[in-house]
Amino acid sequence: MLLLSIDTSGKSGGITLAKGDEGSFRVIASSAIAGGTFSAQLVPTLASMLENHGFTASDLDGFVAVSGPGSFTGLRVGLSAIKGLAEVLQKPIATVSLLEALAVSSERQGRIAAALDAGREEIFWGLYDIRSQNAATIEEQLFSHAEFLGAVKNAGAPLVTSDPMIFDLARRAGIAAQKAERPGSETVARIGLRRLLAGQTVRVEELDANYIRRSDAEIFSSKLPKSAK
Asked: Residue 37, Cβ neighbours under 10 Å: how many?
């Protein structure tokens, strides 16, 4: 299966072209994309990657998208690109949570907690049950620092994070934490391949971002009196 993985969830992103089956996985090419240039660089980078390796878009067998959490604008750009390609080519789509990818990258088994800095003194939190590189989501939430520390202690699961702030926060609270690199599109492609092969896919019309946090517009709207809506 020839697949394309796209991650536009953070300050920078990436595209990975990979090939694999039930027993193998190989990265053919991977390219980083600078934040702020997703909408301008995503499609040209993809087109160049396919051409340089002798493929066309019609050769792709499936797509993998990071569905969140992350930048509202960035996620929309990546998901819109995959929606357009998948609809035209009639190919399946698998989604992967960035928190899930972080948990899998810990290379541990069993219940694993993953955390990412959400800004605004908040933390994206996820709890997963990992068995043989397959992750079942137990919960994903947005917490304050205090809520996060309470959740980690209650979960009783090893914590993995790619953010120094969260690592230091946990250590100061007496919580053991594992540092890991922020998962890239290559890690996401590996997880997505297993999902595509297992038929764990979403239809184009169902593809949506998992922001975890509500947008400012939603928060503002909820605070307006009914007469003003």
From this structure: 13
Q: Determine how β-strand 2-7 pairs with β-strand 12-21.
A: antiparallel
Overall pTM > 0.90: no
Distance of CA 70 to the CA centre of its chain: 8
Residue found under tokens 């092969």: 197
Q: How many Cβ atoms from other residues are within 10 Å of residue 179's Cβ? A: 12
Sheet holding 2-7, edge to edge: 24-34, 12-21, 2-7, 62-68, 93-97
Rounded to whole angstroms, what are the CA distances from 175 to 124, 140, 153, 157, 227?
17, 19, 8, 10, 48
> Residue 132's pLDDT is what?
79
**Are 7 and 46 in contact, with CB atoms under 8 Å apart?**
no
- What is the spatial distance between Cα 110 and Cα 104, in angstroms, rounded to a whole number? 10
Contacts of 107 (CB under 8 A, 6+ apart): none
* Interval 40-66 mean pLDDT: 95
Which tens digits make up the pLDDT trace of 138-159?
999 999 999 999 999 999 999 9
The rounded percent of the chain whose pLDDT value lies above 70 is 93
> Are the CB atoms for 116 and 11 separated by under 8 Å?
no
